[in-house]
Design brief:
Layout lengths: L4 H7 L4 E5 L6 H6 L10 E5 L5 E4 L4 H5 L4 E4 L5 H7 L4 H15 L4 E7 L3 H14 L3 E4 L6 H6 L4 H26 L2 E3 L2 E3 L8 H14 L2 E2 L5 E4 L21 E6 L2 E2 L8 E7 L4 H20 L7 H13 L20 E3 L6 E5 L14 E4 L2 E4 L4 E4 L2 E6 L4 E5 L7 E2 L5
Parallel strand pairs: 1-5, 3-4, 5-6, 13-21
Antiparallel strand pairs: 1-2, 2-3, 7-8, 9-12, 10-11, 11-13, 14-15, 16-19, 17-18, 19-20
Helix pairs in contact: 4-5, 5-6, 8-9, 10-11
């Protein structure tokens, strides 16, 4: 949580945090500016033990003020003058600008840097800054950064925003169910009023329209895959595919607040009209381990044990897993779940690997999503719910409730 930043900085001997770039698609910046819509020249600096400070373009001063943080006008550092003094050397001018910003807040020592910037340019900038200012040590973190660790748990305000996205998503999912159920079938496929086949693309267009009406977005689109494509976990589906009766549809929807912000993640598997026996069997097994895993989850438990439990279950029921065969593309081929927040994939990781020390700390917001995939047999099954481990009650709460029926019955067959 954000309240953990100073403790984490102290533990890692970090004197200040510096975040660069716009708030859009830049989780660290978005987090620090409390969602204010700021542009690409924004810099946020947080000195250990003090509140963050925004350095923003004066044209964005009103938007920056919405953050509730102290705002410094970037123009006071006169970047154009620095560029002239450096005779057009943009790298040295930018390094001097960053040094001036740090000086304004009396910062020296170890400064950890984050944000969105082209990797080569960022490397050149921080190297130049350290050459220019030996009293600064620019620190880069790889994996389990201060921000990633702060995001590990979510406070009530963050969960309220996730819950709001989840509620809107459930409306979209319900509309999708009703849309499919409201079509008639002809020659084994759903058809539109003019008699032409209803396709994946037709359904996706409606999902996007419903989402837009509710002010949620799909930055990475969403998954609506049928038949063989449902057997490939991250296939988004082919627009031209007809909605055929009896074929599995994996519907994985992971929208965010409009303009960027907190994600929600949710999956259901459906068959229209009926489900073949082998699909029913796979679905029953996926649901059984889903219930076993979620019923056994408790605060403080190792996340790896739930992936182990799931691997054990599927292997006992005759399915390949990536534990028994890392190259398999059939059976159970991914982890049981992951954290979600300002990124669609965050810690903790419900994965079984050597060194996974993640635990179910109070406040984690996670997905649980077992699945079975048999592309060559033309089907895949996945069921996913979004759960929050309430710190007050130490119990798991489901965010986004929707029925887990496999078959969508048709009004007219």
């Amino acid at each position: 949580m954000k309240s953990d930043l100073d403790r984490l900085m102290s533990e890692r001997n970090i004197d200040a945090l510096m975040v660069t770039g716009s708030a859009h698609a830049n989780p660290a910046m978005y987090y620090m500016v409390n969602g204010a819509k700021l542009g690409e020249v924004t810099v946020v600096i947080k000195k250990r033990g003090e509140a963050p400070v925004i350095i923003a373009n004066s044209m964005e001063r009103d938007e920056a003020a919405k953050s509730g943080l102290r705002v410094i006008d970037r123009n006071q550092f006169d970047g154009a003058k620095l560029l002239n003094e450096e005779k057009g050397n943009a790298l040295r001018a930018r390094a001097r600008l960053m040094a001036a910003m740090l000086d304004e807040l009396s910062i020296t020592g170890r400064v950890a840097v984050y944000g969105r910037e082209e990797q080569g340019a960022a490397f050149a900038l921080w190297s130049e800054l350290m050459t220019m200012r030996p009293d600064l040590q620019i620190v880069g973190e790889y994996n389990n950064s201060i921000f990633e660790r702060a995001w590990y748990t979510k406070d009530a305000d963050e969960v309220a925003r996730i819950r709001a996205v989840g509620e809107k998503t459930m409306i979209v999912v319900g509309d999708t169910w009703d849309f499919l159920a409201g079509h008639r079938a002809q020659d084994g496929v759903l058809v539109k009023p003019d008699g032409s086949p209803l396709t994946v693309g037709d359904v996706k267009r409606e999902i996007r329209r419903w989402s837009m009406d509710l002010n949620i977005e799909h930055p990475d689109d969403f998954i609506f895959a049928i038949g063989r494509d449902a057997g490939v976990p991250h296939s988004h589906g082919e627009d031209s595919d007809p909605i055929a009766l009896g074929q599995t549809i994996v519907y994985d929807i992971f929208p965010t607040e409009a303009g960027g912000g907190y994600f929600f993640d949710f999956t259901r598997t459906w068959c229209v009209g009926y489900a073949p026996p082998e699909v029913e069997k796979a679905y029953h097994e996926v649901m059984e381990i889903f219930n076993i895993a979620t019923d056994s989850m408790q605060a403080g438990a190792s996340c790896a044990q739930y992936q182990k439990m799931t691997n054990d279950y599927f292997e006992a029921h005759g399915h390949p897993t990536t534990r028994t065969n890392p190259k398999t593309i059939e059976g159970y081929v991914h982890s049981l779940g992951h954290g979600v927040g300002l990124n669609i994939h965050e810690s903790p990781r419900l994965s079984e690997f050597e060194g996974n020390l993640d635990t179910l700390e109070p406040g984690v917001a996670i997905t649980v999503e077992p699945g079975l995939y048999y592309p060559d047999r033309g089907f895949g099954v996945r069921v996913e719910d979004f759960l929050w481990l309430n710190p007050a009650t130490k119990t798991l709460e489901t965010i986004g409730e929707f029925k887990k029926d496999l078959v969508i019955p048709l009004k007219a067959m």
